[in-house]
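Subject: Protein entry, chain in single-letter code together with its fold tokens

Category: Structural biology, sequence-to-fold work with a learned token vocabulary.

Notation: Tokens come from a learned vocabulary of local backbone shapes, not from coordinates.

Start of record: The labelled sequence and token lines come straight after this line.
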Amino acid sequence: AYNFDLFNTSNISPSDDGRVFLTICNSEMSGCRLVYMEKDKKETFYEIPPLSSDTFLNTQAFVTQHNLQRVLYFVSDRNGGFGGLDIWLLIIDVNGNFGVPINAGHKINSAADEITPFYNQYDGKIYFSSNRTEGVGGFDIYSSQGKLNLWESPQNVKELNSNKDDLYLNFYNKNKGYFSSNR
């Protein structure tokens, strides 16, 4: 069990199975890792077994459903990526067990940083931010149709982007959502 007073939390993502996934960091904002909490067990963080002994950064969890398959998307600098921070995924089986980390692939990830994944169930697209060189400036929001590690080439969502950092796009219904920016 962990004491909440000793950790900073962020990137909270609820799952349909009653778990809540989040990033926790120690009070110095280092040692960040992904964990989850179980419904009705509010004082305990559980490690995600395939990530628990990692020396890599694992952050920005987002849980979604593709047909009957539950998927945890996250950001990591782990080996096997395309450079910088990449978007990865874990499959969660019907018993709640976690699969091995899988890179979301070269259509999503680049030599730059890809961060803040959000899968929109309404349009079947993943939205993420990247600081790749062909963007408008800073971190831009991109979208790509697909699932898991099978994606079309991402498109810059130019109507949302500025020459600053545009991040954390999230939809709360079919046509409305929000994002963060430092404009």
User: Anything to note?
Assistant: The chain is about 0% helix and 45% strand.
